[in-house]
Structure formats: C-alpha cells, structure tokens
Write a sequence for this structure.
C-alpha cells in the first residue's frame, strides 16, 4: 500500500511534466496565442498558492483568508531585493536568492501572524487572517521608499516627504508600486517551483511532522492526550503554508512590469479565489488543488470569446465541479468507476 | 510504593464538589476498576489525572513523582495514556497513522527531514512501520492498516484507540468505559484484549466501566464513587456484594 501512495505522488509530478511539455511544444509550434502564453505563469503561481493554502485548510484544518497577504509580502520583498542587486548579480544567482528571500519573509510573517492567530479557532482565525491580508496590502499601497547617497528614505504620505536628493532612486512609489523588477520568472521556472511546492507538501503529509499536524486537525484533545505539542505543529503547518504562498508571490512580482499592491492582485477576493481552487480541487487533496487552479484560472480567460456568457458558464462549471467532488452520490459513482478501472488494469497487469 | 497514589483530590465546579476527597492506590501491574452511577464523577477523576482539569486540592503521584497540575501533554510524557468515553480517533487518518501519531515521541527525525525526506527519514519511518504493525497485530487490526479510522466498525475503533494509547508506552493506561455500546460478543473479546495487553506489556490499567460482568471478570480491586465521594473501596467481589453499593446502583 505504501508503494501505491508513492506512485500517486510520482504520478502528480509526471502529469505536471507532461502538461508542461505539451504546452512548450505548442508554444514552439506557434499554436498558442500571445494572450494564452501570458496566462501560463499566472496559472502556475495560482496553482502554487493553492497548494500552500491547502496545507493550511486541508492538512492543518484552519481556514485562512489571508493567503494573498503572504503572496504580497513575498512579492514585494523579493522584488526590492532584485531591483537593488540587478546590476551587481547575474540572474542565475539573483533570482534563486530573491526566491529564498521572498519565501523567508512570507514564512516570517506567517510565524508572526501565527503567534496570536493560532490561539483562535475556526471563524475567528479566518477573520484575523482576512484582516492581515488587507492591512499588508494597504500598508504597502501607501509606502514610499527610496534611496540616495544619504541612505534609505521611507514615508507613508508622499514622494515629496521622502526628502531625497535629486539623484536619489525611487524604489516604491505608493500606489504606483515597484516598477522595473527584472522579469526573471518564466513558465519553466514557475513549473519548477510548482514541482518543489508539490514535493514539499506531499512529503510533509507522509512524515512524522505531517501526521502530528493532521492529528490536531482531526481531534485536538486526543492529540494532546498522546503527547503532541499542539502549538508547535500548528505553527509549523501555518508557516509552511505561508512560505509556499510567498514563493508564488516571488513568481508574480518577477513576471510583471509593475508590481502594485492593488485589490485586483492581493485583495481578499484573491484570497477567496484561491480558497475556491482549494475547495473545488478537494480539501486535503494536494494534486486536486493544482488541477482546479489551472483549469479555473484559464477557463474565464478562454471563454472571453463568449463575452457576456462567460461568467455564466464559469459559475455553472463551479457548481458542477462542486457537486462532482462533494455530493455523496457523485462520490460513490466516481469511486465505483475508479474501482472498475483499477480492476481492469489489475487484470491486464496480471496477464502481462 | 504504589504506581499511582492519589491523596485528598477535590475539584469544585462553581458550588458543586464534583470530586471530593478522593484517594486511590493502584499497584504496579494491577487492573483496577472505577465504578459508580451516572454523574458520580468517574470521568472527572480521569480528567483530573490527565491534566484536563486542575484539582482545587490534593496530590497525584505517578511512580513517586508529583504530577499534580501538569498539562495534558506533559502527563502523557510522564507516563499516563487514556482512551475516551466517546471515541476520539483521528478519523480522517489511516488506522496505521493513528498508531504512528501515538509513537511520535519515541522515534525522532528533524522537521527538515520531514519536509525533504532526507537523512534518517527512511530508516526511522521503517521503525515507525514495524512498531505500529506490531501493535496493530496485538489488537488484530493488521489487515485494516490502510482503512480510514472512521470506516472501522465500532468495536475495532475502541481497540484502535487503546492501541494508540499503548503506542505512547505508558506506565498507566486509563480506559474510560471501553465496553460502552458493545454487544456481549464484543465485550467478551475486549476483556480478552485487556487481559492480553496486561500480560504482554505488564502494564497497569485503571478503567471506568458500567458493565458489571466485565468489572467482576477482570478487575482485582474497585473503587465505587457516588456523588463525587468514595462509597466503597476494596476487593471486587466483596465490594460488589456490599448492600450500600447495590443500593447506589439499583436503588432500594
């Protein structure tokens, strides 16, 4: 049985790689419109942040509505680093470092938010994380940052208040955000990061620490009674989840020309959008999150030709997927079909 | 020296003395029963012993060490494991993973090894597998190892809960109504299991039970609680025939 689990994990990687190869071939053959090509990286980083959120919702069992906030801090911290070192470091060193910094900063924020938040349960935790996401977004939205020969200047009011010398360089321009981040992230890098996120998430589930996290989700009182340190493992799950969201943020900031902390990128609606991916892909089902994120992100864009009907179709798809994944009758039917497929393959395997 | 020594244990909930002046001596290797009518305070005693509640008065000593006021997690590390009246399994986890969570504090590797499956991960996971399978086979659950815990029939869920508690290598095992909701067949099987784990692991067991057949069948000594106070304490047969005990249970 353990072998079976292992192969499921490996299958996830294989499917991701096949999809990647097909997309690359299509792109070389010129079959993809430039519009679609532009959607590949976003679809991948939304898949990554969905994997991260699924660790929080599915494995840790806590509802977070602030994952766009972790994406946001990952995006801005790594972007600042990349701009400051653009001329001094080659891309091959700079981008991995930016990635490490974005992940570390998101993990740090996860830790800091986790200290008060993980004492709360259920709805309260959702509300506090929601507020965190909004606060982070609004702070970054009003932050002006620049440097000159006198060092770093920061202000929350306006560019003028920075009091910089004429030759100073602006880093963050309030609502205008950060522009000129080197565009180091491409589809290949994004897929590599997705594979790493999957690797981390699935390894965690099949490990000592992962079992401790899941035991708290299933029954906190029983977990305490067998000596599980609740605070430690809740924190671990939350920090890993935030760190993966941070990695998605790094990809985000390194794939667009101007990084702004706007609602359309980091608002609570984005946090909820990610939650939709997680719920529809299956809570606790890591590979399901990837599929749901990729399909549901691309779908409204691909339906653009249908103009005003596209959101109608999108919502019908959401309802159908929801029923397919969660309605008891549909689940039974799916299990029967899967079992019969397995039986057939098993027979073939035995003959061969 | 007794393994578990409880002196003058009391707890108040508002104005109610839920447990009042409770004393208990459980010797090493003993199978001890705690009985009494509904609401007598039996589960409250368990919750006091496992740190869920803090006593207002009294001292609890395990193996000579004062554990009064320790937290639930620490008390498990001190050497007390328990099961619950209404079964508390890790429902969405597999049967074997339930036991592995119980083994958590005996087999270690780092968090980094957890995330990247590096270093001692493989070796220690093998130890987890072996130890968990050994326990499951004691309870006859080895064929159900990959079932989801919530899909097990009731009797097996009880057994799995005991297996999980045993996995923490306790000195003292507390069983809270292990036979509740079981049919006579299942109860008979459970009695065998309890006797088996006592002889196999040499463990001391304190159990709450309503099923008098089970109590008189396996417990050497019992304490009868009524309205939070000790009514009778002593050898099982003598206590169960005591007119006061009969009155408390059945009425006059």
């Amino acid at each position: 049985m353990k072998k079976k689990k292992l192969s499921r994990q490996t299958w996830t990687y294989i499917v991701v790689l096949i999809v990647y190869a097909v997309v690359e071939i299509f792109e070389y053959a010129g079959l993809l419109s430039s519009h679609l090509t532009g959607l590949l990286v976003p679809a991948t980083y939304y898949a990554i942040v969905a994997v991260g959120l699924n660790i929080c919702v599915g494995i840790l069992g806590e509802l977070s509505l602030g994952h766009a906030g972790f994406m946001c801090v990952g995006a801005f911290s790594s972007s600042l680093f990349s701009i400051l070192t653009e001329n001094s470091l080659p891309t091959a060193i700079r981008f991995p470092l930016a990635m490490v910094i974005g992940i570390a900063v998101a993990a740090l924020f996860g830790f800091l938010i986790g200290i008060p938040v993980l004492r709360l349960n259920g709805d309260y935790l959702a509300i506090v994380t929601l507020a965190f996401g909004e606060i982070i977004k609004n702070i970054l939205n009003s932050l002006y940052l620049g440097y000159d020969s006198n060092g770093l200047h920061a202000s929350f009011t306006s560019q003028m208040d920075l009091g910089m010398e004429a030759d100073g360089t602006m880093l963050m321009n309030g609502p205008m955000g950060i522009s000129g981040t080197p565009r180091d992230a491409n589809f290949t890098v994004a897929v590599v990061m997705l594979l790493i996120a999957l690797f981390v998430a699935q390894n965690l589930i099949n490990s000592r620490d992962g079992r401790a996290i899941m035991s708290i989700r299933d029954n906190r009182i029983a977990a305490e009674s067998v000596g599980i340190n609740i605070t430690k493992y809740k924190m671990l799950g939350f920090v890993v989840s935030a760190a993966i969201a941070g990695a998605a943020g790094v990809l985000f900031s390194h794939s667009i020309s101007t990084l702004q902390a706007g609602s359309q990128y980091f608002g609570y609606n984005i946090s909820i959008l990610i939650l939709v991916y997680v719920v529809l892909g299956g809570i606790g089902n890591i590979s399901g999150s990837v599929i749901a994120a990729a399909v549901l992100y691309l779908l409204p864009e691909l339906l653009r030709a249908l103009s005003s009907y596209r959101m109608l179709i999108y919502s019908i798809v959401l309802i159908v997927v929801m029923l397919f994944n969660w309605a008891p009758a549909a689940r039974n039917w799916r299990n029967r079909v899967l079992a019969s497929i397995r039986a057939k393959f098993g027979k073939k395997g035995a003959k061969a | 020296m007794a393994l578990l020594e409880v002196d003058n244990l009391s707890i108040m909930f508002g104005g109610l003395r839920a447990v009042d002046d409770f004393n208990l001596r459980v010797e090493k290797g003993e199978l001890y029963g705690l009985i009494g009518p509904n609401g007598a305070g039996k589960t409250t005693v368990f919750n006091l012993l496992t740190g869920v509640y803090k006593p207002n008065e009294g001292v609890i000593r395990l193996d000579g060490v004062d554990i009064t006021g320790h937290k639930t997690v620490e008390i498990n590390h001190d050497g007390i494991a328990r099961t619950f009246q209404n079964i508390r399994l890790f429902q969405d986890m597999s049967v074997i993973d339930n036991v592995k969570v119980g083994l958590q504090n005996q087999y270690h590797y780092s968090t980094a090894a957890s995330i990247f499956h590096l270093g001692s991960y493989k070796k220690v996971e093998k130890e987890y597998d072996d130890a968990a399978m050994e326990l499951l086979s004691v309870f006859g659950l080895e064929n159900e190892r990959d079932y989801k815990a919530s899909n097990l029939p009731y009797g097996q869920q009880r057994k799995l809960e005991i297996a999980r508690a045993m996995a923490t290598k306790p000195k003292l095992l507390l069983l809270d109504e292990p036979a509740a909701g079981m049919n006579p067949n299942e109860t008979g099987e459970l009695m065998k299991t309890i006797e088996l784990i006592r002889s196999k692991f040499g463990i001391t067991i304190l159990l709450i039970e309503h099923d008098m057949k089970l109590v008189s069948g396996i417990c050497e000594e019992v304490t009868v609680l009524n309205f939070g106070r000790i009514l009778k304490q002593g050898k099982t047969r003598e206590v169960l025939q005591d007119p006061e005990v009969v009155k408390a249970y059945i009425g006059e």
Q: What stands out?
A: Chain A touches chain B at residues 1-2, 199-200, 203-204, 206-212, 214-215, 217-219, 221-230, 236, 240, 284 (CB under 8 Å). The mean pLDDT of chain A is 88. The first helix of chain A runs from residue 2 to 28. The radius of gyration of chain A is 22 Å.
